[in-house]
Amino acid sequence: MAYDVAMEAIAATLVIDGRQVPVPEGGTLLDACRRDGIPLPSLCHMDGLTDVASCRVCLVEVEGIAQPVPACVTPARAGMRVATDTPGLRAHRRAVAEMLFAGGHHVCAFCAASGRCELQELGRLTGLDVVRAGPEIPRWPVDASRARFALDPGRCILCTRCVRACSELEGAHALGVTGRGFRSRIATDGATWGESRACTDCGRCVPACPTGAIFDKALAAQGLLPRTALPPAPGPAPLPAPPGRLRLATVWLGGCSGCHMSLLDLDGRLLDLAPRIELVYSPLNDVKVYPGGVDVCLVEGAVATDEDTALLALVRARTRLLVALGDCAVTGNVTAMRDGVGGAAAVRARSWSGAGGVPDREPGLPALLDRVVPLHERVDVDLSLPGCPPRADLLHLVLSDLVAGRHPDLEGLLRFG
Q1: d(Cα 74, Cα 61) in Å, to the nearest integer?
Q2: What is the DSSP annotation of 85-100?
Q3: Nearest by Cα to 27 from 77, 67, 102
Q4: Residue 8 has pLDDT above 70, yes or no
Q5: How far, in Å, CA of 316 to CA of 322, rounded?
Q6: What angle do CA 44, 46, 50 make, to 5 degrees?
Q7: 194-198: average pLDDT
Q8: Which of 147, 220, 138, 118 is nearest to 185 (CA)?
Q9: Which of 42, 71, 177, 309 could make a disulfide contact with 29, Cβ separation 3.0–4.6 Å?
Q10: pTM
């Protein structure tokens, strides 16, 4: 929101994070933060719509109030002392971001909103680098029955911004929420969106959506949606004189191999690191057996077969520091998309037909697991680097720090997708 200071009637002055902040008459704590440039994330708030305080992302601590309060609906009053960035609030926002990722089917690499998604950005701001498995959630089909727009319930976070935009701005009341608990989802007034009689095709719901749950089909197909640039990774500190070479391994469990390509994108920077690294196992060399005494191993891909399970267990046993490299290793990502169409049983049925049409595995191929899982569901992971793929400058920073014996500081640099 843009504020015209000359036109505002200042009603109160309060203290936010130690700063004196004037607030216009009728303003909320979120208004005060936005007016003064204090960063406070939110998901369900949108200028021009009634606030519902459902996402709980903008919680703040107010002196004299026992529990944190949502800034978007809390009136600003003179003399308030407010904190927006305490350790407890940071942990809370990270937990909310993780819960929202776990509660949907967010494959950022294939999302029309990737790079401009507010949930994706919340994950970056809170330092979210791994998503632990939640309960099995329904997989609602994508509704692409409308001529211009599509609705993907798997990417919806139930902020209801689309519902409020449809009712409050357009007056159509074509969207609403149906179901209870984890079965709640956005619904239209027709059996499908294409059958809606109330929808005017105004498109107000599309920019209202903070994720990729509602999108313009033409723009998404052409890749014309704007993306937010990430801040560049800082240059690594100077490397000290090496006491010895870092024994580095890289493992590819499957996927597109884009994470390994990102490693090669280091180009000349690899030459700077080469004297300090011994590549002892990798698809990039010809070593057949994973050795012992590995200092760092970068693992790309999710665990999809019994062969992956065995190799990952061996890697963990012989490696000091294990790095989950890329979204597939961290969340399952593209590799886990098979689970949405019937899992291993569906793959076997479509791929191998034995006698009488009964699915049968080809001899010599590893057995598929019933469900694709990220690395941390099988072994302890020391460092996670999400991204599809992780950026080359980020890999350079991480490898340089590990070579120097430092733990990488990646705050604000990690983003899914």
Answers
A1: 11
A2: --HHHHHHHHHHHHHH
A3: 77
A4: no
A5: 7
A6: 85
A7: 96
A8: 138
A9: 71
A10: 0.85
